[in-house]
Amino acid sequence: MKNHTDLPISIFRFCLVLLCAVLLPTTVAAAASWENITQNWEAAAVYYDSPCTDTETFHMSDDEFYSAKTELETQVIFAYGRLRGQLQGEAQAALEQSQRDWVACYYLYLDSLAQRWTEPVKIYFEDPYKERRTVLYRDFALVMLCQRLDDLDSWSKGRLAYVEAGAVSEKQDELVEAKKQLQIDMGLCLYVIDEPYREKITAAHRSFYKFLDSNHTFVEVFSEGDDTAVLTEDLLQIQRMSRLTADYYYGCRFFRREREE
User: Fold this and answer.
1) DSSP per residue over 78-108, as a string?
2) pLDDT tens for residues 85-101?
3) What is the C-alpha to C-alpha distance for residues 256 and 38, in angstroms, rounded to an integer?
4) Across the strands, what pairs with 121?
5) Quick one: which of 36, 218, 231, 254 has the most CB atoms within 10 Å?
6) Is the separation of the CB atoms in 200 and 115 below 8 Å?
7) pLDDT tens digits, residue range 154-207?
8) Which 3 state secondary structure label does DSSP give 130?
9) Rounded to two decimals, what is the model's pTM?
10) Could you tell me which residues come within 8 angstroms of residue 19 by beta carbon, excluding any fewer than 6 positions away?
11) Distance separating alpha carbons of residues 213 and 242, to the nearest angstrom
């Protein structure tokens, strides 16, 4: 029988690549300050076929993508079941709610991206002068699955996100600002895309906040009220979604630029 506790090497490597990329400190706000929403595109990003770095999802065949997606979904199911079996009472109920909200968030994001972002786009990545061709639907699916799998596996081993005691105040301020910025960034996604796409994108955004709340409750119960763990886990979720939202924003801009040319 297949062992579902270990990822195949190819998918494991792919997860590492995606997770490293998605955790890089990039924000939409920084991009907006120098690009003025729709103007001043660098030539390399204007011309889709000009040489640039391509992501692994860009080169994947449909079969390769759906195979990786299905395998990761299976891994998440097994990891969730493993953690749930370790819990009882309030902690188990909180995990169940968090997982329901995460699943809803996952599918609502894919539904919003399926409107147009299953085709390749060329977007800035890491900094204003480094572009890449990628497929955002695939990126979101695999990144979100890798992140959830990492969370569930870490929690089942008793590991929570953590910061040194002396950095708690700084992280509290960082969380407040990160939440504000994420709301702004999500608004920019809606601003630069046509009205018909906005309803599903808005539903995805709202689902993330519902998941964030239930995940906060789970960590609070699971950590037995460890405020530092709750703070750092909240910040981790916000940082992850901020990085994904930056890519989504650029993907929206890609099609706006396409209309304006």
Assistant:
1) HHHHHHHHH--HHHHHHHHHHHHHHHHHHHH
2) 999 999 999 999 999 99
3) 8
4) 134
5) 218
6) yes
7) 999 999 987 777 788 899 999 999 999 999 999 999 998 999 999 999 999 999
8) strand
9) 0.82
10) 143, 146, 147, 150
11) 16
